[in-house]
Amino acid sequence: MEGLIDNVNKTLSEDLLATIQKGSKISIAASCFSIYAYQELKKVLEAIDELRFIFTSPTFIVEKADKQKREFYIPRLNRERSLIGSEFEIKLRNELTQKAIAKECADWIRRKVQFKSNCTNENMTGFGVVENTVYSPLKGFTTEDLGINRGNNAYTTINKLGAPFSANYLQIFNNLWSDQKRLQVVTEEVIESITTAYKENSPELIYIITLYNIFREFLDDLSEDVLPNEATGFKETLIWKKLYNFQKDAALAIINKLEKYNGCILADSVGLGKTFTALSVIKYYENRNKSVLVLCPKKLYDNWATYKSNYKNNPLAGDRLRYDVLFHSDLGRERGNSNGIDLSKINWGNYDLVVIDESHNFRNGGRITTDENDENPRENRYLRLLNQVVCKGVKTKVLMLSATPVNNGFNDLKNQLQLAYEGKPQQLEKLLKTESSIDDIFRKAQGVYNQWSRLPEEERTTERLLTELSFDFFEVLDSVTIARSRKHIQQYYNTADIGSFPQRLPVISRRPQLTTLNGTISYNKIFIEINKLNLAIYTPSDFILPSRLGKYQTLNDDGSISGLSIAGREKGVRRLMCINLLKRLESSVYSFQLTLDRIKQVINSAIAKIEQMKQGVATSVDDFDLSNDLDLDDATDDLFIGGGKKTIDLADMDYLSWQRHLQDDQKVLELLTQLLQNITPEHDSKLQLLLDDLRHKWQNPINEGNKKVIIFTAFSDTAEYIYKNIATPIKEQHQLNTVLVTGTIEARSTLKLKKGLDFNKALTLFSPRSKDKAAFYPDVHEEIDVLIATDCISEGQNLQDCDYLINYDIHWNPVRIIQRFGRIDRIGSQNSYIQLVNYWPDVSLDDYINLKARVENRMKASVLTATGDDNLLSNEEKGDLEYRRNQLKRLQDEVVDLEEMGSGISIMDLGLNEFRLDLIAYNKEHPNMDLTPFGMSAVVEATPLAPPGVIYILKNRNDAVNIERTNLLHPFYMVYLQNDGTVHCNHLSPKTLLDTLRLVCKGKNQPEKALCKQFNKETKDGHKMQHYSHLLQKAVESIISVKEERDIDSLFSMGETTALENNIKGLDDFELITFLVLKHKE
Fold this sequence. Notes:
Layout: E1 3-5, H1 12-19, E2 25-30, H2 35-40, H3 42-45, E3 50-55, H4 70-81, H5 90-93, H6 98-112, E4 113-118, E5 127-130, E6 133-136, H7 143-146, E7 158-161, H8 165-177, E8 183-185, H9 187-196, H10 203-214, H11 216-221, H12 238-242, H13 245-261, E9 263-266, H14 274-287, E10 292-296, H15 301-305, E11 324-327, E12 337-338, E13 341-342, E14 353-357, E15 368-369, E16 378-379, H16 381-391, E17 397-401, H17 410-420, H18 425-429, H19 438-453, H20 462-468, H21 471-480, E18 481-482, H22 486-492, E19 503-504, E20 508-510, H23 523-530, H24 566-587, H25 589-614, E21 620-621, H26 632-635, E22 648-649, H27 655-676, H28 685-699, E23 709-712, H29 716-734, E24 738-741, E25 748-749, H30 759-766, H31 773-776, E26 786-789, E27 804-807, H32 814-821, E28 833-839, H33 845-860, H34 875-893, H35 913-925, E29 936-941, E30 949-956, E31 972-978, E32 983-985, H36 990-1001, H37 1009-1018, H38 1026-1051, E33 1070-1079
Parallel strand pairs: 2-3, 3-4, 9-17, 9-18, 10-11, 10-14, 14-17, 19-28, 20-28, 23-26, 23-27, 24-26, 27-28, 29-33
Antiparallel strand pairs: 1-7, 2-5, 4-8, 5-6, 6-7, 12-13, 15-16, 21-22, 24-25, 30-31, 30-33, 31-32
C-alpha cells in the first residue's frame, strides 16, 4: 500500500516491521547506520537474506583528504560515530546496553550485510528498497529516521511506493553498487568500528579516551612552538638523566608554559627537588643559545654556583652550564661587584630567561621610596626586576621557584605572576579562556577566601574553598603554576625508582624550665617585667612638641599625613624590638642577656645626650642600627627598606618627659639583668636538656649507626652559645665533630682541616651522601655529626643524611618550623625514620599566645597615651593570632605539611599538566583517537584509595550547568559513585577524579581478564545493565543537585541570580563519553 510516512501518525519502523519478510533482499542508501536501528528491527532483520548498504557521503573510506579540512572531517566523524548511536540516540546509549547490542549487530553484519561508501564529493540522495517496495527519501538509518524518537524534526516526509517505481530505484541502486570508481567496500571497517564498542578494553584506553575528549582543544591548539624541542638534545644531558619521573613531567610542563605564557611558578612542596627541575629547564634554554640569569637569596649562592663550576667535583660539569648568579639584594645596588659581575656595567635587559629562587620574597609587589627630603625616588627590588630585567631589552621569560608562593592572600601570587606578563595583564588575558580580567579574577578569589576564612573551623575545609573559587581562577592557576604536594607524588607516581619519604616518628615536645637553680625565676615572671617596658627609646617622635611636628611629617600629594611618616616607622620598630625580646628569651638566656645589654647601652647614650642638652649643648638623636639584633624574618621587614629614617633635634622635643620614660625602662632592664645573672650554662635547663637528648640519641639511634643531628635556632648568638658549650664535650666524650653555621660568621668546627671549612664544605661533610662528598672532597675522610645552624639554611638545602632535628627555639612563624624539617624530610632518604624535637617555653600555649597578643597590643599604642587596657588589635590581627594558636597546637603533636597549614593558601595539586602530557605522549603513538566511539568502558581493580563503584565521564549538551563557572572541565563532568549510589567524589573536584583515574589505569594496557569475566557474568554479557544505568542517573542527579544548591545560594547572595536561567532536565542533557567500573577481584 503506497502512501506518505510522516513518523508522527505512522512510523517507518512500524511499516518496515510489516514489510520485511523472511528471505527479503534489502538495499539501502543513507548517510549513516546505527546499531540501535538494528535493535529496533532485529526480529525481522535476523531473517532476511541480505542487506546491501551504501553510505551516501564518504564514511570509513581510506583517508585521501587532508585532515586539515576540518569542515569536511567533522561531519564525517559524526557519521562514523553514529554507528553506535546518533546525536538523538544518546538516551539509548545512556542505558548502557550498547555493548550487548553491538555484539549482536556485528554478528548479524558478518552473516548478512555488505557496506560500501561513496568515495567522491558527489551528492547522493538516500532511499531504501525492500523487495517491491521503495522508501524515498531516506536521510539515515537511525532510530530517529525510523520514527522511534522524534529528534528535532517536527515531521518527516517519506514516500512509500510500489512497482514499477521500486524497479526503477533498484536499477539505480544496482548500477551504483557495481561502480567501483564511485564506491569503496567498507564492510570490514564497519565491523571493526562496531567491535570496538563491545570488545574488552584496557583501563589505560579508557583513561586516554577521557583525556582526549576533555583536552581535545588543547591538542588542536598545540603547535610545535610551545612544545619542548627535542632536537636540542636536552634529553641526553646529565641533568635530565638525574631527574625523577615527576621532575621530568614538571620540566616539560614548565617549558610549555614559558613558551606559551612567558612565565611559570614551580611551587612543588618542600623536599621535591625544585632546583634540579629548574636546572634541566635552564639547560634546555642554554642549548638554544639563550642567556640565563638566576636570582637567589645570598644564602643559596653555593647551591647554584656549584652546578656551573668547571670543577671535577661538580656532578653536572659535563653539561657546561653557564648561567649568571646574582642575589635578590643586587637589584637594590647600582654599583659594586657581585659574584664577579660589575653591577655598574651589567646589561640587565639582555637575559632571555630569569629564574627567581624563593620568589615569594617578591610577593609584596612594587613600591617607590624617597629620601628624608621626599626626593630621589627609588624603585624597590621588585620594580627594578620588573622594569630593568623583564621589560627592558630582549623578551624575557620568568621561572619562579617557591614552596610558599601564597602567604597572606592571592595578591602574593598576582604580584609574582605580574613579573611574567610584564605588569600588562592583557598580555596574559588574551591567551586564557577567562571571562574576567586578571585583576578581577584575583580580587574575586581574595573575596571568596576572606569569606571562607571567617567560617567556623569545622566548615573551613579545602573542599569548601575549592567549590567556591571560580573556573577563571583555576584557569589562571592551571596555565601558569605547577604545584605538587608530597602526598600527591607518593599517591600518583611510582616511587620505586625514587625511594620513599622516611616515616615521621611522633613529635617530641620538651618544656624545660628557665633554670635548674632553686628560686622563683620563671618565664612568667620575666614576661611580667617585659610587659612593664615602654621602649620609648625607639619612639622619640612621640615626644616632638606639637608646634614642631610639621618639620618631621611626610605628606601625600593630597596633603594628608603619609603612612610612611617617621612616627609610623618608629612604632613598627618598637613593636618589633619588644617581640624580639620575647623571641630572644625563648631562644636562650644568653641571647636575652645580650639584648638587654644592647638596649641599656642605647638608653644610656640617649640620656647622656639629654644631659648635654640640659647644659645648653644643641644635640640630636638618630636611628639605631637594629638589624643584627633581629631574626632573619624581622631583619628583612619593610621598615628597614628605605623611607622614614630621620634625625630629630632634641630642641624640638619634650626631652624631659622622654628622659623619665627612659629611666623607667632602665630600672626594669636592671632588674631583669639581676634576675638572670646567676643562670650560667651549668644552670641553663634547656642547654643541659639538649646534652641529655644528644646522649640519648647516640645511645639509642633511630636508624642503625646514624648519629647525625641538626640543632636549629633563630638567632646567631644562641647558635654561638650552644656551640661554645657543647662542641668540646661532644668531641672529648663521644669523638664526634660539631659545626656552627650562621649567616654572619664563617663555619666553625671541631674538625680542623688544612684548607679550612667554608659554609658549603661544612654542609657536605655533614651530609656526605646527599651532597655528593665523594665527588667534591674525595680526600677528606672525616665527617661532621652535629650541625648547629640558624635559618640561613632552613630553605633550599638537602641534608637528608641526618635523621634527627631539634628546634632549640620555636619560630613564631610556623612555616619556618616546617621548612627546617624539610631539610631532612625528603624524598629518596636512606633513613627509615626521622625525628623532630621541639623545645617550647615552660608555659601553656594559651598563655604564650595571649602574652604575644598583650605585647602586640601594648606596642600599638603611643607611649604617652597607653592605658594598657585598650584593645587596639584589628580583627585581622586577632584572627592571625588565633591561626597561630591552632598551627602551633598541631605542631606540638605532629609534623604538618606546608600545604596543610591553615595560614597559607595552598595552590597544591590544582593543575592539570600531567594529564595533558600523558595525552600528548599517547597521541603521538595512537593518532586516530577521534575514531573511538562514545560509551566504551573498562573494568579495573578497586584500591583503598579508589573503592568499588563507577567513574562516569559525561558531556553536557546545553550550557546551563556550569554555574559561576566553577566546573574546571565544562562541558565535561566526571562523577565517582560507590555501588550503593553515594557520591564518592563529585564533579567539582575534577583534579582528584583525574588523579584517581590515572592511578588505577595508567600502565594497564591490557584488559583485566578476570575482572571482565566477573563483570560479564554479573551483567549477562551487557544485557542486564540496570544497576549501572541507575548509577548513571544518580550521577547526573548529583550534578543537577549541586547546581540547584548553588542556584538557591545565588538567590540569597548579592548580584545576579542564576536560579531562573535555562534549566537542564536530566539524563537526556548528558552524553556518556566513557565509564570505568572499579571492582574487587572475587
